[in-house]
Write a structure and sequence with these properties.
two-stranded antiparallel sheet; about 30% strand; 8-stranded antiparallel β-sheet
Amino acid sequence: MSFDPFTTPISFAKVKGVKTPGICVIEDADQSIAWDERAGPFLAGAFLVGGGRKLVHFSMRLTLLTSQDFADWYAFKPIVDRPPYGTRPKSLDIWHPWLVDQGVRSAVVEKLGQPKLSSDGSFEIKIDWIEFRIPKITLAKPEASSTPTSNDPVDKLIENLSSQVQKLSG
């Protein structure tokens, strides 16, 4: 299912199945891929190893416009508050179409901001999140998009000598 904010705008997210108060905007939910560049001495270029998914870091901005929004905020806040001292934090099920697009279904609160007065008289609360995902081993080395060819005579000499050495070594 693809989300079209023009035909079906959504102004909330769900955390543990509970709708966020006020108007909710999800920001910076960008996917990143982890790559390790492995180069050696006298090499022009490097081997890329990795390809694993990094965790998605994103922000939730809540805009509270009415007294009812503030009442809803104080009912919602215990869900995103720090866990009591001595207890183990747990990830939270989270839903918003932009997060679905990025494959995020569970996250932990990294930072809970205070309500800040905006110039239009509304209050904004920013919550920073980190995706929660159990690690899986995904070691991969990408292949070239096409076989590189070179017209450089030195490269051709090196390639010729390398193939001779490989034939002699068996």
